[in-house]
Design a protein that fits this description.
three-stranded antiparallel β-sheet; Four Helix Bundle (Hemerythrin (Met), subunit A); mainly alpha; single chain; Arc Repressor Mutant, subunit A
């Protein structure tokens, strides 16, 4: 995939640097830029009609967040979270998120439960969509559900850590969501976690959360093996 096949149109209402950042981040997440691919900054600046300054600002933010890295010739290259790193992240989540769920069970209000339910219902409605942005919408719904839980937990430092872990395996999440069976299962599992939260059933909510993380990890490992077999 190269820059010629990516929609680099800016949105007028956004700050230029923010605009560039959003476009490039989305292109990386959805595989328009492949892991290890060098990004042609000159072409992007020309195509977008922007100066190098806002592009540098966008690159700096992407690099700080771990999406890209600098290479010796001064250019930028898309980073990839390795399978081993992804497994480590899932394992860390399986330790931290049960604690989060304990906090959520303790803190959650009926109003917050309603918000979580609305998010899940929105996700279910997207399952039957045939639009090109279906995957993006489901990814967004799943992220909102997780971020809402982080917020309800009330531990700001834990929220920052989990948010960072979430971002670092986004392209693996997308790989999983391309599987129609998992796509549906992921939203259903969020629903099961919600039902346990409604009952303030900490034990069941933790059990379902661990199961949710483990299934996602297994999908990633299986997908990597299958990908390796096809390329060999």
């Amino acid at each position: 995939m190269n820059e010629h096949n990516i929609n680099l149109k800016l949105e007028k209402q956004k700050n230029i640097s923010e605009n560039i950042y959003d476009i490039l981040r989305k292109a990386i997440i959805f595989g328009k830029f492949k892991a290890g691919q060098t990004i042609n900054g000159s072409f992007i600046a020309k195509k977008m009609g922007v100066s190098r300054t806002p592009l540098r600002e966008a690159f700096k933010r992407l690099e700080q967040e771990g999406w890209i890295e600098s290479v010796p010739n001064g250019r930028k290259r898309v980073k990839k979270t390795s399978l081993g790193q992804a497994i480590e992240i899932y394992d860390i989540r399986s330790v931290l998120e049960p604690y989060l769920i304990e906090l959520v069970c303790k803190n959650v209000t009926d109003n917050e439960l309603e918000k979580l339910e609305k998010i899940i219902k929105e996700g279910i409605s997207y399952l039957h969509s045939s639009k090109d942005n279906k995957l993006e919408k489901i990814l967004n719904v799943n992220k909102r559900f997780s971020m809402q839980l982080y917020k309800i937990g009330g531990n700001k430092r834990l929220c920052v850590i989990l948010s960072s872990l979430y971002e670092n395996i986004l392209h693996y999440r997308i790989f999983n969501l391309k599987n129609i069976t998992y796509e549906k299962r992921s939203i259903e599992e969020h629903g099961e976690i919600l039902e346990a939260l409604k009952k303030r059933d900490v034990k069941s909510a933790i059990k379902m959360t661990r199961k949710h993380i483990e299934i996602a990890k297994e999908m990633v490992v299986r997908g990597d093996v299958e990908s390796s077999e096809k390329s060999s």
